[in-house]
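Run (raccoon dog) hypothetical protein through structure prediction, thanks.
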Amino acid sequence: MELENEASGSPGRASGGSREYKVVMLGAGGVGKSAMTMQFISHQFPDYHDPTIEDAYKTQVRIDNEPAYLDILDTAGQAEFTAMREQYMRGGEGFIICYSFKELIFQVRHTYEIPLVLVGNKIDLEQFRQVSAKFLFRRKEKRKRKKKKKKKGKKEKKKRKKKKER
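Sure, done. The structure for (raccoon dog) hypothetical protein is below.
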């Protein structure tokens, strides 16, 4: 799927059969959800951090070369607003879970069958990292090997089953 930001701001309601998607930004406080949203919507990076309670944005994009609208809900990450998370999750059709490389705070739960994008933000703040890039790379490679091994095991199991049937 190819996504291209076509216009910024709030273009109004979807008309003419354009698709509309509700996207929810989730993550702890101060990880950069609002900054990423503002960067996507207005191509500007905010100069200061004002903790978000809930902000909604609408933008027109092109998905697979067709016009579509994104309703982006930028949510509060502070602990005192965790009760609202379930409401956000019920209303969303897709989620962007944002965490900071500065802190190890990513907890992803697979409770819904919906698209999910995991965004690691603040990678440029290397001196504050608790999760090294080397660790993430090794973890990725380990998963690849595990997946390959599992696939190989399934093939061998099929071969044994075919032999048994003969």
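DSSP finds three helices and six strands in the chain.
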